[in-house]
Amino acid sequence: MVMESFISAEPSIPLVISLPHVGTGLVPEVEAQLTPVARLVEDTDWHVERLYDFAREAGAGWVQATLSRYVIDLNRPPDDASLYPGQTTTSLCPVETFQGEPLYAARGPDPQEIARRREQYWQPYHARLSALIDQARDRFGHVVLLDAHSIASFVPRLFEARLPDVNVGTYGGQSCSLDLSHRIMEVLHAQSEFTCVLNGRFKGGYITRHYGNPQNGVHGVQFELGQLAYLDEPAAVYVPSRAASLKTLLTQLVNAMVAFRPTR
Ligand SMILES: [Zn+2]
Question: How many angstroms separate the alpha carbon of residue 178 from the centre of ligand 1?
Answer without folding.
Answer: 24
